[in-house]
Amino acid sequence: VQFVESGGGLVQPGGSLRLSCLASGFPFSSYAMNWYRQAQGKEREWVALIGSTGGRTNYVDSVKGRFTISRDNGQNTVYLQMNSLKPEDTAVYYCKSNSFDSWGQGTQVTVSS
Question: Judging by DSSP bridges, how do beta strands 9-11 and 17-24 pair with one another?
Fold first, then answer.
């Protein structure tokens, strides 16, 4: 099982980024997927969930209305569209299926002027 995150970078407050995560090693379309993030010096935090078909989503309160999780089961990829970014969104972002122990390397998102 492997997760490869990409799409992070440096963005100004109020800006947008789209993260991608390519999954492999398991039947992707059968599993819910999550995004997590970890800010420097803080514990890893769950951010968003999407069900296996994409019909169910959920978000941590701090990103509701700003972030959108989606998936393409044909491409084994899950996305996180992040709008209206704030400095407190700065973190390393990871995708994961909670049915497996594996973590990817993450992608760094830095929101700063």
Answer: unpaired
